[in-house]
Amino acid sequence: MPPLTVAPSTAGTAPLQALSEPQQGLLWLLQREKDGLTVDDIAGRLSVTRTAIRQHLAALERDGYVHRQVLRRSVGRPRHVYALTAAGDYLFPKQYHWFSALLLESLKQDMGQEGLIEWLRRLAYRVIEQISPRLAGLSPPERAEAVVRIMNEFGYDARLAGGSSEAVEIVATNCVYHELARAFPEVCHFDYALLEGLGAVQSVEHLECMVRGGPCLPLPALVALGAEGTGPPGLIDS
Predict the structure, then answer these.
(1) Which residues pair with 203 in a beta bridge?
(2) pTM of the entire structure?
(3) What does the pLDDT look like over 85-96, one tens digit per residue?
(4) Span 100-112, pLDDT tens digits
(5) DSSP string covering the chain, please?
Protein backbone atom coordinates (compact mmCIF):
# COMPACT_ATOMS: atom_id res chain seq x y z
CA MET A 1 0.00 0.00 0.00
CA PRO A 2 1.48 3.40 -0.93
CA PRO A 3 2.27 5.76 1.96
CA LEU A 4 -0.07 8.62 2.78
CA THR A 5 1.29 11.99 1.67
CA VAL A 6 -1.02 14.48 3.40
CA ALA A 7 0.82 16.37 6.15
CA PRO A 8 -0.67 18.38 9.03
CA SER A 9 -0.88 22.10 8.43
CA THR A 10 1.87 24.23 9.93
CA ALA A 11 -0.02 27.48 9.28
CA GLY A 12 -0.23 29.99 12.10
CA THR A 13 -3.13 30.37 14.48
CA ALA A 14 -4.82 32.94 12.29
CA PRO A 15 -8.06 33.44 14.30
CA LEU A 16 -6.11 33.81 17.54
CA GLN A 17 -3.48 36.06 15.99
CA ALA A 18 -6.18 38.61 15.14
CA LEU A 19 -6.36 39.42 18.86
CA SER A 20 -3.88 41.47 20.87
CA GLU A 21 -0.91 39.71 22.44
CA PRO A 22 -2.23 40.16 26.02
CA GLN A 23 -5.56 38.62 25.00
CA GLN A 24 -3.78 35.75 23.24
CA GLY A 25 -1.77 35.04 26.38
CA LEU A 26 -4.91 35.14 28.50
CA LEU A 27 -6.75 32.74 26.19
CA TRP A 28 -3.80 30.32 26.06
CA LEU A 29 -3.83 30.29 29.86
CA LEU A 30 -7.55 29.49 29.98
CA GLN A 31 -7.08 26.87 27.28
CA ARG A 32 -4.72 25.03 29.61
CA GLU A 33 -6.94 25.50 32.67
CA LYS A 34 -10.22 23.91 31.59
CA ASP A 35 -11.99 24.53 34.91
CA GLY A 36 -11.36 28.27 34.63
CA LEU A 37 -9.41 30.81 36.66
CA THR A 38 -10.28 33.78 38.82
CA VAL A 39 -9.21 37.31 37.98
CA ASP A 40 -6.56 37.08 40.71
CA ASP A 41 -5.28 33.77 39.33
CA ILE A 42 -4.94 35.21 35.83
CA ALA A 43 -3.31 38.41 37.01
CA GLY A 44 -0.78 36.44 39.04
CA ARG A 45 0.04 33.99 36.27
CA LEU A 46 0.49 36.71 33.63
CA SER A 47 2.04 39.34 35.93
CA VAL A 48 -0.56 41.89 34.85
CA THR A 49 -2.71 44.16 37.00
CA ARG A 50 -6.20 43.04 37.97
CA THR A 51 -7.63 46.14 36.27
CA ALA A 52 -6.01 45.24 32.95
CA ILE A 53 -7.18 41.62 33.24
CA ARG A 54 -10.75 42.74 33.89
CA GLN A 55 -10.63 44.95 30.79
CA HIS A 56 -9.38 42.10 28.61
CA LEU A 57 -11.92 39.68 30.06
CA ALA A 58 -14.75 42.15 29.45
CA ALA A 59 -13.76 42.46 25.78
CA LEU A 60 -13.36 38.68 25.36
CA GLU A 61 -16.66 38.01 27.11
CA ARG A 62 -18.39 40.56 24.88
CA ASP A 63 -17.04 38.74 21.81
CA GLY A 64 -18.20 35.39 23.14
CA TYR A 65 -14.76 33.86 23.70
CA VAL A 66 -14.92 33.52 27.50
CA HIS A 67 -17.69 33.32 30.05
CA ARG A 68 -17.92 33.65 33.80
CA GLN A 69 -19.11 30.70 35.83
CA VAL A 70 -19.38 29.65 39.44
CA LEU A 71 -16.97 26.95 40.57
CA ARG A 72 -18.40 25.31 43.68
CA ARG A 73 -16.09 23.56 46.09
CA SER A 74 -16.77 21.07 48.87
CA VAL A 75 -15.13 23.44 51.35
CA GLY A 76 -15.24 27.22 51.32
CA ARG A 77 -17.16 29.75 49.31
CA PRO A 78 -17.86 29.29 45.60
CA ARG A 79 -15.35 30.94 43.27
CA HIS A 80 -16.23 33.05 40.24
CA VAL A 81 -13.95 31.93 37.46
CA TYR A 82 -13.54 32.67 33.76
CA ALA A 83 -13.34 29.84 31.23
CA LEU A 84 -13.25 29.42 27.48
CA THR A 85 -16.46 29.10 25.51
CA ALA A 86 -16.78 26.81 22.49
CA ALA A 87 -16.16 29.86 20.29
CA GLY A 88 -13.02 30.63 22.27
CA ASP A 89 -11.72 27.09 21.90
CA TYR A 90 -12.29 27.33 18.15
CA LEU A 91 -9.71 30.13 17.96
CA PHE A 92 -6.94 27.62 18.63
CA PRO A 93 -5.19 25.55 15.94
CA LYS A 94 -7.33 22.76 14.49
CA GLN A 95 -6.49 20.12 11.91
CA TYR A 96 -9.91 19.45 10.39
CA HIS A 97 -8.61 19.98 6.86
CA TRP A 98 -5.63 17.66 7.40
CA PHE A 99 -7.79 14.91 8.89
CA SER A 100 -10.37 15.22 6.09
CA ALA A 101 -7.64 15.10 3.44
CA LEU A 102 -6.07 12.11 5.19
CA LEU A 103 -9.38 10.25 5.03
CA LEU A 104 -9.94 11.13 1.37
CA GLU A 105 -6.43 10.10 0.36
CA SER A 106 -6.77 6.80 2.20
CA LEU A 107 -10.20 6.12 0.67
CA LYS A 108 -8.91 6.95 -2.81
CA GLN A 109 -5.98 4.57 -2.39
CA ASP A 110 -8.27 1.80 -1.16
CA MET A 111 -11.21 2.36 -3.54
CA GLY A 112 -9.72 4.09 -6.57
CA GLN A 113 -11.11 7.30 -8.05
CA GLU A 114 -14.45 5.85 -9.15
CA GLY A 115 -14.92 4.17 -5.80
CA LEU A 116 -14.28 7.45 -3.98
CA ILE A 117 -16.76 9.28 -6.21
CA GLU A 118 -19.41 6.65 -5.52
CA TRP A 119 -18.69 6.85 -1.77
CA LEU A 120 -19.05 10.66 -1.81
CA ARG A 121 -22.34 10.45 -3.69
CA ARG A 122 -23.70 7.96 -1.24
CA LEU A 123 -22.58 10.21 1.59
CA ALA A 124 -24.58 13.01 -0.04
CA TYR A 125 -27.66 10.77 -0.09
CA ARG A 126 -27.34 10.24 3.65
CA VAL A 127 -27.37 14.02 4.08
CA ILE A 128 -30.41 14.18 1.79
CA GLU A 129 -32.31 11.86 4.13
CA GLN A 130 -32.00 14.54 6.82
CA ILE A 131 -32.91 17.45 4.54
CA SER A 132 -35.64 16.09 2.27
CA PRO A 133 -38.54 16.52 4.76
CA ARG A 134 -38.03 20.28 4.47
CA LEU A 135 -38.89 20.09 0.77
CA ALA A 136 -42.07 18.03 1.06
CA GLY A 137 -45.11 19.53 -0.63
CA LEU A 138 -43.22 22.28 -2.46
CA SER A 139 -43.57 22.95 -6.16
CA PRO A 140 -40.41 22.54 -8.30
CA PRO A 141 -39.63 26.31 -8.32
CA GLU A 142 -40.26 26.50 -4.56
CA ARG A 143 -37.98 23.51 -4.01
CA ALA A 144 -35.24 25.20 -6.04
CA GLU A 145 -35.49 28.25 -3.77
CA ALA A 146 -35.46 26.01 -0.70
CA VAL A 147 -32.34 24.24 -1.97
CA VAL A 148 -30.60 27.62 -2.27
CA ARG A 149 -31.59 28.46 1.30
CA ILE A 150 -30.21 25.13 2.50
CA MET A 151 -26.97 25.68 0.60
CA ASN A 152 -26.60 29.05 2.29
CA GLU A 153 -27.04 27.41 5.68
CA PHE A 154 -23.95 25.39 4.76
CA GLY A 155 -22.17 28.62 3.75
CA TYR A 156 -22.15 28.35 -0.07
CA ASP A 157 -23.36 31.92 -0.68
CA ALA A 158 -25.76 30.59 -3.32
CA ARG A 159 -28.47 32.36 -5.27
CA LEU A 160 -30.87 31.76 -8.14
CA ALA A 161 -29.50 33.59 -11.16
CA GLY A 162 -32.34 33.05 -13.61
CA GLY A 163 -33.85 30.25 -15.61
CA SER A 164 -37.17 29.06 -16.98
CA SER A 165 -40.06 26.83 -16.01
CA GLU A 166 -37.91 23.82 -16.88
CA ALA A 167 -34.48 24.81 -15.57
CA VAL A 168 -32.90 27.30 -13.20
CA GLU A 169 -29.35 28.54 -12.80
CA ILE A 170 -27.83 28.44 -9.33
CA VAL A 171 -24.69 30.42 -8.58
CA ALA A 172 -22.56 29.70 -5.50
CA THR A 173 -19.49 31.84 -4.89
CA ASN A 174 -18.08 30.18 -1.75
CA CYS A 175 -16.84 26.62 -1.81
CA VAL A 176 -17.01 25.39 1.76
CA TYR A 177 -14.19 22.88 1.14
CA HIS A 178 -12.16 24.67 -1.52
CA GLU A 179 -8.73 23.42 -0.46
CA LEU A 180 -10.00 19.84 -0.25
CA ALA A 181 -11.52 20.13 -3.71
CA ARG A 182 -8.22 21.45 -5.11
CA ALA A 183 -6.46 18.35 -3.83
CA PHE A 184 -9.37 15.98 -4.45
CA PRO A 185 -11.66 17.19 -7.29
CA GLU A 186 -13.81 14.12 -6.63
CA VAL A 187 -15.29 16.08 -3.69
CA CYS A 188 -17.35 18.11 -6.18
CA HIS A 189 -19.42 15.01 -6.90
CA PHE A 190 -20.81 15.34 -3.39
CA ASP A 191 -22.45 18.60 -4.51
CA TYR A 192 -23.75 17.15 -7.78
CA ALA A 193 -25.35 14.22 -5.98
CA LEU A 194 -26.73 16.51 -3.27
CA LEU A 195 -28.51 18.70 -5.84
CA GLU A 196 -29.85 15.82 -7.87
CA GLY A 197 -30.83 13.72 -4.90
CA LEU A 198 -32.85 16.42 -3.14
CA GLY A 199 -35.65 15.71 -5.59
CA ALA A 200 -35.72 19.34 -6.66
CA VAL A 201 -33.86 18.52 -9.85
CA GLN A 202 -33.61 15.86 -12.53
CA SER A 203 -30.10 16.67 -13.71
CA VAL A 204 -27.23 19.07 -13.12
CA GLU A 205 -25.19 20.57 -15.93
CA HIS A 206 -21.93 21.83 -14.47
CA LEU A 207 -21.00 25.13 -16.13
CA GLU A 208 -18.09 26.52 -14.13
CA CYS A 209 -15.65 25.53 -11.41
CA MET A 210 -13.43 27.54 -9.06
CA VAL A 211 -10.89 24.71 -8.85
CA ARG A 212 -10.48 24.89 -12.63
CA GLY A 213 -10.08 28.67 -12.62
CA GLY A 214 -13.69 29.88 -12.60
CA PRO A 215 -15.20 32.26 -10.03
CA CYS A 216 -17.60 29.67 -8.64
CA LEU A 217 -17.41 26.11 -7.35
CA PRO A 218 -19.06 23.82 -8.18
CA LEU A 219 -21.65 26.13 -9.74
CA PRO A 220 -23.12 27.97 -11.73
CA ALA A 221 -25.14 24.99 -12.76
CA LEU A 222 -28.20 24.60 -14.92
CA VAL A 223 -30.64 22.63 -12.81
CA ALA A 224 -33.46 20.80 -14.57
CA LEU A 225 -36.49 20.92 -12.30
CA GLY A 226 -37.87 17.50 -11.42
CA ALA A 227 -41.12 16.15 -10.12
CA GLU A 228 -41.79 16.05 -6.40
CA GLY A 229 -40.58 12.91 -4.68
CA THR A 230 -37.93 12.06 -7.23
CA GLY A 231 -35.54 11.18 -4.41
CA PRO A 232 -31.90 10.17 -4.73
CA PRO A 233 -31.07 9.08 -8.28
CA GLY A 234 -28.68 6.39 -9.37
CA LEU A 235 -25.04 7.33 -9.51
CA ILE A 236 -24.45 9.96 -12.20
CA ASP A 237 -21.65 9.64 -14.73
CA SER A 238 -18.31 11.23 -13.92
Answers:
(1) 224
(2) 0.70
(3) 999 999 998 888
(4) 999 999 999 999 9
(5) -PPP---------HHHHTS-HHHHHHHHHHHH-TT-B-HHHHHHHHT--HHHHHHHHHHHHHTTSEEEEEE--SSS--EEEEEE-HHHHTTS---HHHHHHHHHHHHHHHHHHHHHHHHHHHHHHHHHHHHGGGGTT--HHHHHHHHHHHHHHHT--EEEEEE-SSEEEEEE---TTHHHHHH-GGGHHHHHHHHHHTSSEEEEEE---TTTT-SSSS--EEEEE--TT--S-SPPP-
